[in-house]
Design goal:
The protein is of the alpha+beta class and 158 residues long. It is elongated and about 95 Å long. The model has no long low-confidence stretch (mean pLDDT 79).
Length: 158
């Protein structure tokens, strides 16, 4: 409560000083500039005390965050990273196969997240479209060479 009292006292004092200065300024070309400076002074008098309150608010917000919220947030971020990595690898595989004029039916990325948060890609299983069975060895070799990831390429014959 004392903070609000100090803040209101500062604003009143600033307004009083501004009124005295405004009455001392002669009419003419300087009047507009003085009014501008006085307005900026009043705005600063209102805002500056708030800078003392802002750090207290941020500390309070940090203390009120629970570990459950943090763990949910961390889990969501890890899922999003995993999904982004899978999508990225899938897009790379499909693009490389398209460059080879091979149609892809499905790409399955098998990966794990380590304790340190890094993602390990164990294997990528690629299923080629019907009729591309003879290209599976060539596609596997090309993808492993290009992407540097262990591949298992099969064709959909059913």
């Amino acid at each position: 409560m004392s903070g609000v009292r100090e803040w209101s006292t500062a604003i009143c004092m600033a307004a009083l000083v501004a009124a005295m200065l405004q009455s001392l300024v002669p009419n003419g070309s300087m009047e507009r500039m003085v009014k501008f400076v006085i307005g900026a002074f009043i705005i600063c008098a209102i805002i500056v005390p708030l800078t003392k309150i802002v750090p207290q608010i941020s500390v309070t917000l940090q203390e009120s965050a629970t570990s459950q919220d943090n763990s949910q947030f961390k889990g969501t971020v890890e899922k999003q990273l995993s999904t982004a990595a899978q999508d990225s690898i899938t897009n790379l595989v499909v693009a490389e196969l398209n460059n080879m004029n091979i149609k892809c039916k499905n790409v399955n990325v098998i990966m794990d997240t380590n304790e340190d948060g890094s993602i390990s890609i164990n294997k990528v299983v690629v299923i080629l479209a019907k009729g591309y069975g003879e290209d599976s060895q060539k596609a596997s070799a090309h993808l492993e060479k290009t992407l540097g990831i262990k591949m298992e390429v099969t064709a959909d014959e059913g």
